[in-house]
Amino acid sequence: MNFDYYISSSTDFVSLDEATFINIIKHPDLTVTSEEKVLNAILMFGMRTKELFRWEMVDELLVNSEPELLFGERLQSVYDLLPFVRFPLLPYPLLEKLQKSNISSQIPVFQNLVIEAINFVKCGQARLENEENVRFQHRRSSYRELQYICDGDNQGVMYFAGTSYGEHPWVNPLLAERKTITITASSPHSRYTDPKALVSRTYQGTCYAGPRLENGQICSWWMVDLGQDHQLMCNYYTLRQDGSKAFPRSWNFQGSLDGKNWTNLSLHENDGTVCKPGQFASWSITGPNALLPFRYFRVVLTRPTVDATNPWNFSICYLELYGFFL
């Protein structure tokens, strides 16, 4: 179950009964990107709020209120649900903030769980008595966060794939003995339509996907397949223009589970960001679709570039994806 998407796309979950919500929270295959999301959902459930709330907002409300007034008849449910948050997996600076919060000072069970987590982190993972306690274990379906830092960094999925997901130093993933990803283009492989250029650490001056007809429409695209064992909830992506001046202005960034049915993650219409040969450009993915996991991703040109000679050549020489990787 993709918990992040479930709680972000709708707040209807706050109307569930406690037993059903507990069954969701404790499900062994619950997919979460952060235990903070679980905490926020529990507090929202307790307040029956139809608005998206973070724990900081609840903390502010408790400056002039009390848990009994804020949560009403669901206060006991909050007490019962909080132990399902795996606090020891939260970043230590966040645990320190939670310890100093009004929530901690007014809800003893919350305070005890946070202190327990802080002590566990301080003592390290060697506390054997906690090994069987589910609160101290990573969820089976947790995602690894690959966070965008800057253009051309080594934090994204393509770079990670080049290390066989952390097993060895980087090599071009399309040249590795065990290929972890596949990249294809709308036009046949050639000297200047070379998928391995997109995941190389070396700049290539000429690299493009040529046009083709799909459903009666001209388009050009580059597509990434992460493989049957992996998915990504993409929240950022980076392109790099090749050495030409065929700057794209209208294109879509899409995700798919099967490589056939596509979901738009980012739509670009008359986007003038790319304006120099060799330029990097990056965009964030926002909204509920950023919390949907996909195996396939593609950038597809939807209108001609500014180049009058070959207007449908999608001329990029680098592609990187970021987000929560499974």
Automatic annotation (TrEMBL):
Domain named BACK: which ranges?
7-61
Occurrences of domain F5/8 type C (ranges): 182-303
Pfam families per record: BACK, F5_F8_type_C
Matching InterPro entries: BACK (IPR011705), FA58C (IPR000421), Galactose-bd-like_sf (IPR008979)
Q: Which SUPFAM superfamilies match?
A: Galactose-binding domain-like (SSF49785)
Describe the function of this protein. May act as a substrate-specific adapter of an E3 ubiquitin-protein ligase complex (CUL3-RBX1-BTB) which mediates the ubiquitination and subsequent proteasomal degradation of target proteins.
Q: Which PANTHER family match?
A: BTB DOMAIN-CONTAINING PROTEIN-RELATED, OS05G0345500 PROTEIN
Provide the protein name: F5/8 type C domain-containing protein
Q: Which organism is it from?
A: Stylosanthes scabra
Read off the lineage from the record: Eukaryota, Viridiplantae, Streptophyta, Embryophyta, Tracheophyta
